[in-house]
Specification:
The chain is an alpha/beta fold. It is built from 9 helices and 12 strands. The chain folds into 2 domains: 107 residues, 3-Layer(aba) Sandwich (Rossmann fold); 180 residues, NAD(P)-binding Rossmann-like Domain (Rossmann fold, 3-Layer(aba) Sandwich), CATH 3.40.50. The strands form 2 sheets. Strands 8-7-6-9-10-11-12 form a 7-stranded parallel beta sheet. The protein is elongated. The structure holds NADPH dihydro-nicotinamide-adenine-dinucleotide phosphate and oxalic acid. Oxalic acid binds next to loops.
């Protein structure tokens, strides 16, 4: 069985070694050295060139190196009937939860305010508040949102989450569906987006939503750039409706050099750096799915293409 590996960001040497250690008879071919495309059975990919997967006539499964599969689904040439599985991995989840905690702590301890004060050489103390006084709202309570919520609860924050279906997570107040979005947003001091990008969630971070947050709330977008309506964020920061935003994902990546977000005093930009999976642990899922493919058993973490995640 041959697996094609294609990713501009992940290390092909480490991945090949990790896969082969677990499954020595798996042939790993690294893009662009595909060999005969007809010999490829499955593909492990992150941002593959559009059309690459369509050119593999005997492809039986697509394994995403990313948790989000929106870019794959946007490719009109993506083979429609080949099962698509997303990445779920302990190292990915842990690095995301850590990144969420980092930014919630930063806002909770007013570091964004102190950074602005430093630029003005202004010495002004803001008395620290208890963690419980900071209400964190997580949009998306899936693999990543749930782990982040649990970590925040352990640190004493007041945590609420919003998802399509209701959840029971200890210490987290769960809100579900469009009907409960307004109630979820009330009183949230730090809003974290960990939604997948779908037709329902595109543009969800907009003026109407910002208006439902308390004045001076902070936003952390870790989902996808297209969740955010960029002009609405700039207007909300100008008016003070939002005090600050941390953005890890963008409609265009890399973020173009001339983009106003780079130099905005109330925006922190990180380069889609929140979370990545380590081949050491993540190869486990890929190998398990290759074994299942060989045995004709159901694959793990199949994407529901109609739902979009
Ligand atoms: P999951 O599929 O496990 O979770 C998605 C969550 O979003 C679920 O709770 C789901 O609800 C909820 N959801 C989906 N659609 C809606 C909707 N219309 N309304 C309300 N809630 C909705 O995904 P992950 O947690 O693994 O990943 C989430 C996203 O994080 C990825 O799709 C990707 O975009 C982003 N990501 C970003 C990274 C980065 O480095 N910045 C790294 C990895 C991922 P329900 O549970 O009811 O189905
Ligand atoms: C993603 C990922 O989906 O890095 O962004 O997993």
């Amino acid at each position: 069985m041959a697996l094609l590996f294609a990713s501009p960001d992940d290390d092909p040497v480490a991945w090949s070694a990790s896969l082969r250690r677990r499954l020595p008879d798996l042939e790993v071919r690294v893009f662009p050295d595909i060999g005969d495309p007809a010999e490829i059975d499955c593909a492990l990919v992150w941002l593959p060139p559009p059309g690459l997967l369509a050119g593999l006539p005997n492809l039986r499964a697509i394994f995403s190196l990313g948790a989000g599969v929106d870019r794959l689904l946007e490719d009109p040439t993506l083979p429609p009937d080949v099962p698509l599985c997303r990445m779920v991995d302990s190292s990915l989840t842990a690095s995301m939860a850590e990144f969420v905690l980092l930014h919630v702590l930063r806002y909770h301890r007013d570091l964004d305010v102190y950074e602005a004060q430093q630029r003005r050489a202004e010495w002004r103390l803001l008395l620290p508040k208890p963690a419980a006084a900071t209400v964190v709202g997580l949009m998306g309570l899936g693999e990543l949102g749930t782990a982040s919520a649990r970590l925040l609860v352990r640190h004493g924050f007041t945590v609420r989450g919003w998802s399509r279906t209701r959840k029971a997570i200890e210490g987290v107040r769960s809100f579900a569906g469009p009907a409960q979005l307004t109630a979820f947003l009330e009183g949230v001091s730090v809003l974290v987006c960990l939604l997948p990008l779908t037709s329902e969630t595109r543009g969800i971070l907009n003026t109407t939503l910002f208006a439902r947050l308390p004045e001076g709330a902070r936003l952390v977008n870790l989902g996808r750039g297209a969740h955010l309506v960029e002009e609405d964020l700039l207007a909300a920061l100008d008016s003070g409706r939002l005090a600050h935003a941390t953005l890890d994902v963008f409609a265009r990546e890399p973020l173009p050099k001339e983009h106003p977000f780079w130099r905005h005093p109330k925006i922190t930009v990180t380069p889609h750096a929140a979370a990545y999976c380590q081949p050491e642990s993540a190869a486990e899922l890929v190998v398990e799915n290759v074994r299942r493919l060989r045995a004709g058993r159901p694959l793990l973490h199949l994407v529901d293409r109609a739902r979009g995640y």
